Amino acid sequence: MSSNDAKEQIARVIAAVTEEVPAFRPLKLVFSVELRGRGDTQQFRVELPGPIVTKEIPTDARVNVEMRREFFNAMVEEGARVADWREAFHYGQAKATGVSQILQLIERVVNMHEERAQLRRARN
Length: 124
Known about the structure:
48% of the residues lie in helices and 26% in strands. The protein is of the alpha+beta class and 124 residues long.
């Protein structure tokens, strides 16, 4: 996988997440995505809103997201939804570190999204 492919995949994942959870659209955040492969690690700087994805080591990232490249590729191919990503973080296939207030905010927004989705299903 070339870095251009990875940049496009990261942008697609972010577009899908913001489509599913519109509350993330106005979020202003710089974070890093670290994809580890066999003996190789690629780092990307992601700036929101946008997203603007560049292949570089971000010195201004507030959150760092790490995962195996194979896992990321599989999640992208399967069209993973927010619940799938949440499960990946819960079970350790993906890891997020950084400013705890930002991580907590993201978790609260996802929780509210999932609660709304359950209410919609219950009404139908």
